[in-house]
Write a sequence for this structure.
């Protein structure tokens, strides 16, 4: 049975056409992002980001991923190869999808407290969202399993000149 | 030397006046949120949330915190006691402060990939931002210490009726 | 112990000053909205709406409510008496508070399906939000009690002229 | 006579193409959402949500619904089968359609009173819009029939950590 | 000479394709909305609303209007027949077209005074925009003819429960 | 019994302080806008507009109105006398109050049809919202009295140069 | 060499397709707006407005302009002939193009002073943007030539009724 | 009789307090902007801009203007003297006041045509809103006097580097 | 291997189709903007601006650039030749891409301080963004190379008239 | 003569009250930011940022700056001492002041080209706005002096995990 990922709706309509091709191929294979990630030794969230054009595969990674998904690598290399750079940031803001909105709600409700604790522990600066790693884990819990989202970003102190 | 936390500027202008009093008292004592948190057996991020009126102290906690900070508990109980309920969500959106914006940028850039991985691991549902715990840790790193932000929320499957 | 309801923060800052006085008096008495409602034979949600200046008490109701709450009725009658009309609609949109946001999310996610079913059952028209009654009930449930929100509004067919 | 549901206009333009196909097939059969719902033992509002890609059919349900509507199940399974996850939240905000706007107006006018009553009856927490059921009933009334919209959602108390 | 009404520009791009076909057919015949309205015994403004998918023709009206405009009724019945419900509200807000903006300006400038007078004359409630009739008349005036726009809507008193 | 019109809430907070004084004086006298209007030979809607600083009294009218309302004319003349010009347009947009929103909804739903009929009857131009008169009448109706809102504005043809 | 005016980008994507045809034909001929304007005895700014569908040619003007630009008049008459009315207002707001933004900046910076002077010289009313003429002239200046933009609009006093 | 210019309402609430003092003093004297302008040899529109803190008086001009208006120059020099720089741009956007909106409408409707003509006459560049002069004149006309607004700005060609 | 630059996604979807052709040709050749720039003696940032339709090549430059990139010059001259003028300003605001957002953040955080220093050094006026040159340099640094962005714009003093 | 910097207007109304005191003291002394900066060995732009609460002085710097400006250091230390952290990002967006808008325009017009060149020279990553230095220089030029704004920020490559 074929699996289609319509490319004309949000957020894919904003992205290079190869993105829906990659997602379709992955669906056809019935693979998880983690399975794709293992092909190139990366994390599943990072690979998901790359599938949504929010991170950049190397040409070598693109070839390996395409091959693993039975997809000719030519279109991928042509569209999101070395000459291409991600145009990051997708979807409406504020997000309307409840999964995304809950993340946004975390910023609304806990953003200021998090900022206060970061300053207390590190001083004047920020948590980098560039030099950062993001993980999503499933933690078993008798009262209902839990999503554990970890954002591990370098602290960058403000320059003073 | 006195420490003032002006109550008329963002985000405190949106909050009960006791909030700036609590922050001032904490500054006067020179305490961290973690020190306040230990008084009532809670986490520092949760206490910071409560100081910014984004979480609700019990009356008993309010008394202990007030006492620990050399603040009469009457104003606290009067303003944010049992009869009061948080009006959550503070600050402008999109946030302009770079610390807050980086969290918001995480939603813009990694929100869709996180959603994709959550669905893959859990099915159709969300990570609760109500039954959730948030921690901010400092991880030593020779290339620069890192902020490790963990959001641990219960997975809630969508009802089907 | 006194109970204060600061009038300078959202949404009270948008409302006649008597609103925070009424809420304070109610907190001082330790009454529920339902207890206040019984004084004048109304529903608790409607009374809450009137306390937030979203519905209009009659002069007689204002007198009875003030008396029951040990509040002189003069200020109430002076501010929100017969000559006053509600200026409805409060709080930011989209709402940032999670309780309010969930109601808003219901419109985002289920609004179109609800519209489709209303048309199917009633034809071309709307559910009135003027000739309507709203109730909030607590339903016991072993897996966690449930909020049952009922909106009962007259169907108004579109005029054709 | 054929019935067309143009897929290029709001909100269908935001949704997988199968959505307009399902709505067309239902129109062709002259069925109500309730009739479709009975095929799979679900409620009409939930089925309407699934037709608008705001809820997720199981593969089995998709097959039954397609068959009942004389539609080949292949396209449905290909587009909104197991590999697909709803991207929830449709239509403009604030809504411009009067049926949808009235729901939104309920949030503007009665949202804060509802929040106040929920807190009074349940404490600090929210009504879940994930573990919730929504019904639309027609209540006969000599002065004009009424729409009775019921939202039955689990109360979720705020975690304190 | 043919008359084309391009369907890909605002507000027609938001509407069922039949709308531009109806407007084209009317232009080809050189008819006014009033002439179309007389065919089905309705007012010209209501018919214009129906041509812009803001009101709903009965199947019988659609057949008569199609026939009168030398248009096969099949497409009309297929697109905006019994199974279709208007998705009301069109064009950008605030409107940019000066004709529409002047109506919007009336709300900005005279809306509050109109509200004050309505309350004074009717009490707490609204003028229905569902049970309402709208007319546009031309009144001769030596200093320049005048547009007389009349909105005649039922007063709906607020329910109190 | 005194009647207070708090000046610090919307829309009065945007207006000269004399506005709430005028509204208070009118409330104290128990007068309608029509009664005030008769003092100076004007219409009630226009007088309401002037009370909300959306129209400009002459100095003579201000004196007569102040006197009729037992208000010293000095403050009125000082604040909104000859040297003052209205800064028109009040309240949030889109309006949240249901009375005002219904007028706004008329623009959303019927604005384009009204524009179409105006062009058909008058050609390329607009209905003036400057050279216009607005009336609000109560029309008795056994099924419920009706609000008849009339906007009578000069047609202004577009200049061609 | 051909000259193409792509019709799918802003602001042409909002306009009838004939607009890009007219602009292309003008470019092919190498004419200025002034040369086109002389064909029908109008001003160049007005003709530019008509080319961007912001003003309405008469059928006769359309024929003359089409003929002068070696364009068959049929498409023009079909699309923007007698049955068509401009839908005015184009481009994003605030404008992003620096030429347009400077005009917008004039409103931001000098709008209030201009209003103050208009009221001083004319009383309570507005400068009509309907009965108005706009010119753009080049004035030689040794320090750099200057653009002289003149807006000549009828003063319209506010009606008082 | 005193003339008050309340400083707490838009746009004065955004401006240095001296602005309302200057406007009050001018009102008290009964002067026009032109009369003030003659004191320092400037144009009335420029002086109005300076009164609304949108242009900068020299210290000498401030002294002369204060003296002419019987105002001590100390407050003016203290608030908007040499150390002060205008923070330009006032009022809401889009403007709600009809006088200001008409200017804004000119940008919406005629902005693109004006841009097209500027490029045709001058090439790639802009009309400066910094090196510009703005005048408002009254032109007598038997059909109604006209406002002639002239914006005379230097053409600035785009740098190419 | 072919290199494709999809023209239907942001910001290219807003630009003349030739833009993606130029970017594709450059990618196919494997050239930098600097290499293209040397062909016509311009800076790389300016050439990048021209490739994104934010600056205007002369016809001669277009021919040279097309030839150097093995592209027929006809399409370029046809689309963005002499008759074409840039419609400047691209991408969403606030920008969501982190590279662009950092520039925007510079305005939010350092804009007011930069304004203060410009006024101190130059008086009342602005830094021209028309008569300006922008460079991007790479500065080697043992702690991590640095981007040096220089904006060199003419100071324009405010006219006083 | 005293110099006042009113603290209740934008952007100072958003900032700790000490900010207007510091700016007033600097104005009273007649110092430039550069003169203040020399007291603590910093750059003038950085000091201006600190005066507008967009950067953080050390306690020692605060003491030296206060002393140099004849200001008691107590208020400064109390308000923006060690316990305080900047809440960065000030003023409206998009900015309305022309000096600030020109910087914003640089992002709109040249942001995408700058991004393209940064990627070409550095790969996938951003220019840090945290580890960055900003300078404003005056460059003499016979055709008009020029503002040279330099932003020197560390390149941060995107993490891949």
């Amino acid at each position: 049975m074929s699996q289609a990922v319509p490319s004309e709706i949000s957020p894919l309509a904003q992205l290079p056409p190869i993105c829906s091709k990659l997602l379709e191929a992955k669906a056809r294979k019935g693979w998880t992002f983690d399975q794709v990630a293992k092909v190139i030794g990366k994390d599943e969230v990072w690979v998901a980001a790359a599938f949504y054009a929010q991170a950049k595969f190397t040409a070598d990674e693109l070839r390996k991923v395409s091959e693993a998904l039975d997809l000719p690598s030519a279109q991928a290399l042509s569209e999101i190869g070395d000459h291409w750079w991600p145009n990051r940031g997708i979807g409406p803001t504020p997000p309307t999808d409840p999964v995304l909105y809950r993340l946004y709600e975390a910023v609304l409700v806990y953003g200021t407290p998090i900022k206060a604790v970061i300053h207390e522990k590190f001083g004047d600066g920020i948590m980098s969202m560039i030099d950062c790693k993001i993980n999503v884990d499933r933690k078993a819990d008798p009262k209902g399993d839990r999503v554990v989202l970890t954002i591990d970003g370098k602290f960058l102190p403000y320059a003073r000149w």
Chain A has a mean pLDDT of 97. The interface with chain C takes residues 94, 96, 98, 101, 105, 108-109 of chain A (CB under 8 Å).
